[in-house]
Amino acid sequence: MGYQLSREQFDRFLDRLKEDYRVFGPALDEDKGALSDSDRITYKEVSRLGELVLDRKSYFSPKEIFYPLRETLFRFCDGEITVPAIDEKKTAILLRPCDINGIDRLDTIFLENGPSEDFYYKRRRDKVRFFMIECTTGFDSCFCVSMNGGRTDRWDVAFRFGEQILAEVKSEELEPYFAGCAQQPFEPQFVTENSKKVRLPEVADITADVFKHELWSEYTARCIACGRCNTSCITCSCFTMQDAAFGAEGKMGERRRTWAGCHINGFTDMAGGHRFREPKGDRMRFKTMHKINDYYRRFGKHQCVGCGRCEDVCPQYISFARCINTLSDVTRERKSK
Amino acid sequence: MKNPFLPHKMEILDVIPETEIDSTFVLALDKPVKPGQFLELSLPGVGEAPISVSDFDEGRLFVTIRKVGRLTDAIFTLGPGDFLFARGPYGNGFDYQDFWGSDLKVIAGGTGLAPVKKVIKNFIDSDKVSSLQVLLGFKTPEDILYREEVRAWVDSGVATLTVDKAGSDWGGNTGLITGYLKGLDLSRLDKCKFIVVGPPVMIKFVTLELLLLKVPEDNIWVSLERKMSCGLGKCGHCKIDETYVCLEGPVFRFQRARRLLD
Ligand SMILES: Cc1cc2nc3c(=O)[nH]c(=O)nc-3n(C[C@H](O)[C@H](O)[C@H](O)COP(=O)(O)OP(=O)(O)OC[C@H]3O[C@@H](n4cnc5c(N)ncnc54)[C@H](O)[C@@H]3O)c2cc1C
Ligand code: SF4
Ligand code: SF4
Ligand code: FES
Fold first, then answer.
1. A114–chain B nearest CA distance, Å
2. Are A27 and A41 in contact (CB under 8 A)?
């Protein structure tokens, strides 16, 4: 069913919703200084329409809401293991189509890859409802159309924000919260063209010699392994498990996991000091292949959804779109030879 | 909901010192395992690490651990009656059927012997293989694992043992393992199957030599080591291309392993 809400009605809708859901949306990160050059949009719990920032892209993706940067897997005390409980409340996230598609890529790793579902991911993810923000233009660095990432029907409610707010509700569970709003059918539109375009290399054309191509050495010189491209990406899923002890070692402590990134030092370190992909260019190559080549070979879809955040956040101005296009040129050139 | 991250307790039944820095821990076995698989062993609050299954029998599981860091140091302070925590077994391991009817050659360097020890024991007096030859290399005589068993294999002519370097009191072979490959009986090359396990450089040079000897890639198996955190195909540390070493490995046919570019 479709509805039309005034801005005041939307705030009252949020009030009702917040009784049963935690509601997250893109908002100004005040910690980062609202008026400084470095103000950022980030995902926060919101309760008013006015808190939402809809004319800029968020610096971080919404993945942190259900896949925390650091999560305690279990605590132990004198040999007893306990798994911490989580907030039982459901989670509504206001997000764009590319992020819904990105979360599908996370789901594939956490829920489908390997012998079992990821308990910690699943128990939070199951509570998430997608409140899609209609996005028809994208931003400068977006290339979602090239990645087929800008379009989805996996939303629970779709919103068009303007002087009036249009909402199309797909999920029955959410209908009651719109009680009293005027009915108005609405079909969300999607972006059909970005100013930035990428040409994807054919999956099968990536061969071992492309791995060794000099195009990667540029990144050895430029990348500083800060890992921001990994942490900001909606599809990066890697983590490292660590133990911490409190008090006397072995008596009390916890095992936790923390986001990890393939650009960051230590990602491949093994006992004995052996490591792989020491040059940063090799890491750029590894990430690129995962985003637009080997993930596809394993799961039949590209991992990257073209949100462009990795490019927005890189302190070295490394453009992922440009990297993909260069790779594409190189593979095409080799094929024609 | 099943939580695959939770470890369960395994009792240490015995500890067998192997070298100055390696010991075999005998654990109470509580579920089926395959040779070449690994466990995620841990002490909560200290750490967790992948450790290969080196042997097992009715009710007992053997792991050989090298003392190299935080977790392994702590494990070495434990003894019979103490508990370790474990998840797994994980990984594919070796399938005995792959080697039935072959002239099997096992080439192991250093601690690489651990994941194939059970394979060797399984085939040593078995008519499932036409023949078995084992080539073992260690850094020095002091690094030799499973001394008694290795001596028995050498005495019965099944195994050739070499050390990279040794003092004058060492009466055996010296030199790199690659130097002894020509001692393998390859007269029925089409019947020969090879298992190569050891440090990355050793695997690299041994497989290179084998290919020069015209061994088909199809007939070589290797076991790879990569950084691993979860063992479950989630953490991403062990991934090479579209392959997860913790899921599809650590045992690979060489024709696949060769195409895994880090
Ligand atoms: C599939 C698989 C099977 C394995 N099987 C076995 C097995 O059967 N037995 C076994 O003993 N091990 C095995 N290992 C290796 C084992 O997992 C590691 O030795 C273990 O993680 C060490 O943990 P730790 O906490 O004791 O060491 P940590 O405290 O983690 O110390 C290791 C870390 O310290 C650093 N480090 C340690 N030594 C050096 C050095 N010489 N130079 C530079 N840096 C160094 C490295 O950064 C390394 O990551 C296996 C690994 C894999 C992937
Ligand atoms: S790789 Fe870059 S563009 Fe692609 S999904 Fe991740 S952050 Fe977005
Ligand atoms: S954000 Fe840029 S500099 Fe930082 S790790 Fe990624 S590519 Fe390298
Ligand atoms: S060890 Fe985590 S994915 Fe393989």
1. 5
2. yes
Mean pLDDT of all residues belonging to chain A = 92
* Cβ–Cβ < 8 Å for B87, B45: no
CA of A32 to the centre of ligand 2 (A): 23
Q: Which atom of ligand 2 is nearest to the CA of A143?
A: 3
Q: What is the pTM of this model?
A: 0.93
Residue of B nearest to A273 (CA): B68
List chain A pLDDT tens, one digit each, 337 residues: 999 999 999 999 999 999 999 999 999 987 664 455 567 899 999 999 999 999 999 999 999 999 999 999 999 888 789 999 999 999 999 999 999 999 999 999 999 999 999 999 999 999 999 999 999 999 999 999 999 999 999 999 999 999 999 999 999 999 999 999 999 999 999 999 999 999 999 999 898 889 889 999 999 999 999 999 999 999 999 999 999 988 765 578 999 999 999 999 889 888 777 888 988 999 999 999 999 999 999 999 999 999 999 999 999 999 999 999 999 999 988 888 7
Q: What is the pLDDT of residues B177-209, one digit of tens each?
A: 999 998 999 999 999 999 999 988 899 999 999
Distance of CA A310 from the midpoint of ligand 2 (Å): 6
Looking at 3.55.50.30, 3.40.50.300, 3.40.50.80, 3.50.50.60, the CATH number of the domain B96-257 comes to 3.40.50.80
**3 state DSSP class of A36:** coil
From the CA of B230, give the closest atom in ligand 4: 2
Check: CB of residue B166 under 8 Å from CB of residue B173. Answer: no
Rounded to whole angstroms, the Cα distance separating B70 from B76 reads: 10
Residue of A nearest to B233 (CA): A114
Say if CB A294 and CB A213 are below 8 A apart: no
pLDDT in tens, A217-250: 999 999 999 999 999 999 999 999 999 988 765 5
Looking at the complex, report in whole angstroms how far the Cα of residue A207 sits from the nearest Cα belonging to chain B.
10
Q: Nearest C-alpha to atom 2 of ligand 2 is from which residue? A: A310
Which CATH number applies to B8-90? 2.40.30.10
CA dihedral B158, B164, B169, B170 (to 10 degrees): 0
Distance CA B143, CA B149 (A): 14
Which distant-in-sequence residues (6+ apart) come within 8 Å of B182 by Cβ?
none
Backbone angles phi, psi at B112, to 5 degrees: -60, -20
Give B107-165 pLDDT, tens digit per residue: 999 999 999 999 999 999 899 999 999 999 999 999 999 999 999 999 999 999 999 99
* pLDDT attached to residue A266: 86
Instruction: Give the phi and the psi of residue A171 in degrees, each rounded to 5.
Output: -95, 120
CA distance A225 to A278: 11
Instruction: Pick the closest to residue B164 from B177, B181, B183, B147 (CA basis).
Output: B177
Structure-block tokens of residue A169: 């509700």
Smallest-distance ligand from the CA of B247: 4
Domains of chain A: which residue ranges? 2-67+80-183, 203-240+262-336
Q: Which residues have a Cβ under 8 Å from the Cβ of B240 and sit 6 or more positions away?
A: B226, B260, B261, B262
CA of B204, closest CA in chain A: separation in Å? 15
Per-residue model confidence (pLDDT) at position A77: 87
Atom of ligand 4 nearest to the CA of B228: 1
